Structure formats: C-alpha cells, structure tokens
Amino acid sequence: MRLAKLATALVCAISLVSAVPAAAKVGSWTRTPVPISKGDIAAVAALTDRDAWAVGYRLRSTTSLQAVALRWNGTGWAQESALPAETYPQALAVRSATDIWEVGSGSSHWNGRTWTKHALERGMVPEAVAAVPGGGVLAVGMNTPGSIKDGVPDVQSWDGTRWRRQVLPQLGKGGLTSIAALAPDDVWAAGYTTGGTQTTLVVHWDGRTWRKVDAPSAVGANTWISGLTAVGPGEVWAVGGSVKGSAERPFVMRWDGRAWTATQTPDVADGRLRAVGRTGGGELWAVGGKGSVTVALRWNATARRWDTESSPDISVRGFAAVPQSGGLWAVGIARQGDLVPAIARYD
After folding, report:
1. Vertex 132, ends 131 and 135: CA angle to 5°?
2. pTM recorded for the entire structure
3. Buried b / exposed e across 129-150, counting CB within 10 Å, b at 16+?
4. Residue 171, exposed/middle/buried by CB under 10 A (0-12, 13-18, 19+)?
5. Distance between terminal CA atoms of the chain?
6. Which residues, if any, are the signal sequence (predicted)?
7. What local confidence, expressed as pLDDT, does residue 203 receive?
8. Of the candidates 304, 344, 346, the residue with the CA atom closest to the CA atom of residue 23
C-alpha cells in the first residue's frame, strides 16, 4: 500500500515539467538546497532553529529506492544516514538527536549512531507517530486484517522492547491519521470513519482508556482529519479536508477544553490541509494542497478565522513549526521538474 501511495506521488510529480532553482524565493518562503537530486521528502521535524530532521527517498533507478535521513545544521541540509533496507518512511517523531522514530513500512529508531527496525503488530498501516512527554512513543494508523476497505483505526505503543496494540472503543471502519501528545495521560488522535458519508474521528487517551470524542464534520460533505497540534489542554487544533462533488476544501476544528468546534476557512478548491503547527512566536499555521495547488493558512485570532498566506511552491508532504522561533518547514516534491525533492523554509 505504501509503495502504491509513493507511486501515485511520483506519477503526479512526473507530470510537472520545468525545473525550479533550488534557492528560488516564493513570497516569504525560501527553497533550500536538498542533497538528493531525484526522489521525495516525506516528513520533517524540528528541535531548534539550527537542528531539524527530514526523512524521504532517493530514487536510485526506475525500480529502486533508498530511504534516507537528512539533518539541518542551521545553514544547510546534509544526509545524516541511510535507513534500513525495505524502509519507506511516512512520518517522523524527534525527541532529541539521539532519539528519533520513523514509521511507514513498520518502524525504525535512531539512537544517534544507527537505525534499528522494529516490526509493528501485525496488520497495522501506520500514518503518524508521536514521542510522548516522559518517554513513551505512540503510532496510529489503520489495522487491515483482510483488505484496506475493511480497515479499522489502530493505536500501538512502544514498551521499550516491542510495539503493543492498545484497546480502542468500537469505532467502525476507518483510520487514524494524526496524533498529538501533551502528557502521558493527555493524548489526542484523529482521522476519519467510513461507511456512507466519511466523517471526522477523534479519540482521547486519559492515561487509562481511549474514548471517542464528538467532533463536527462539514455539512453534507465527506470530511476527514489529517493533522493535529496540541498547544495545551484547552487548545488543540485538527486540520483536514472536506469534499462535496469533486473539489476538496480546507477543514479546521478546535478543542477549547470542552468541545470541538469547526472554524471558518477560505474556500480554496483542492485546498485540503495536511498539517498544522504553532511557531515559537505563537502564530498558528496550516499547510496543504492537492496536485498543483498548495495552500497555507494563518489563524487570525482577532477575526476568529483562517486567512490565506503565501505558500511554499512545492507539493507538500510534511510540515513542521520550529520551537522557540517563528520559522516553518515544508517538505515534499517540487511542483515543477522531474521528481525534484523539495524543502522550503519560512522565516
């Protein structure tokens, strides 16, 4: 399934033609050189303004990929390491430079010297991973005992030796796409349920059990969540998209400590959102898009709405805010060129 998703992304990228200079500026976003000439960057995470990590793929031939980890040192990106063979990273959690997890085709852990592969419990297709304050690690996705159409939400936790599946309430068919951990007893995960109309799905961990929490969906439209960020117990944001007809629109909702409420977003065609993050300066951004459309939104707290901002000139696969900084990272594939890996920075 992961290879199929990657193949789809590569086909989309191949259809885009003229190259963009590696250091081209687009509004307030700046493309930074990438030490991979052909491939894809799937995920990014930042520790500080001078220490960020990204994972992705180098295309070695038409049938061969090499998974790699890149590191930002404050002035440029360089390859830190290659990941284990048959690794296809999709998501990243960075606790420190010596404690990093990636998930995709299973999971791998970086201890500062080497990557070690760890199998997830059977049947899981992971979508996101989070380092829990205090030392825990959680992965979320879909459990596919038969086929993808019969998949159900799945959460697994790392116990220091192996991954173990956690007990969820009866949620029906669907999957979890995102996770945000505030504390060992305060974790949110979100995604979607299927069956008739697709709707948002949110669950919360209180340290003992996972509980489903009511959440809104766009009226009369299929709706899903693809990104989460938790500012505090009374401020959690979830972003995704909704589709009525053929066009996908941005969708955002907020937890205020009592309930989830949908917030106003611009009507951007193909503007589904992939991720949300809060900068060290307190600004809240959401980034996404589909195909040749890239969208970036910033929360206008005074007007209580999301405003459209300049967006990175790339097909976004991953996004991260930089702690203690106003900076942002967006990674993916250039919208122009033949499988050109792209990383853009917003200062």
Report:
1. 90
2. 0.90
3. bbbbeeeebbbbbbbbeeeeee
4. middle
5. 36
6. 1-24
7. 98
8. 344
Q: Give the pLDDT of residue 196.
A: 81
- Determine contact, residues 279/28, Cβ cutoff 8 Å: no
For each successive 10 residues of the chain (347 residues), what is the average pLDDT? 43 36 54 96 97 96 93 97 95 98 96 97 96 96 87 97 97 97 98 93 98 95 97 97 89 98 95 95 94 93 96 95 93 91 96
Please, are residues 248 and 237 in contact by the beta-carbon 8 Å criterion?
A: no
Q: What is the pLDDT of residue 247?
A: 83
For residue 75, the SS3 value is coil
Q: Give the max Cα distance, the chain.
A: 53
Distance CA 339, CA 163 (A): 34
Whose tokens are 């590696």? That residue is 22
Alpha-carbon span 224 to 209, nearest angstrom: 23
Which are the contacts of 240, defined by CB distance < 8 A and separation ≥ 6?
177, 190, 192, 200, 223, 224, 225, 226, 227, 251, 252, 272, 273
Strand, helix or coil for residue 165: strand
Tokens of 126: 């992971």
CA separation for the pair 120, 166 (Å, rounded):
12
Which pLDDT value is given to residue 246? 81
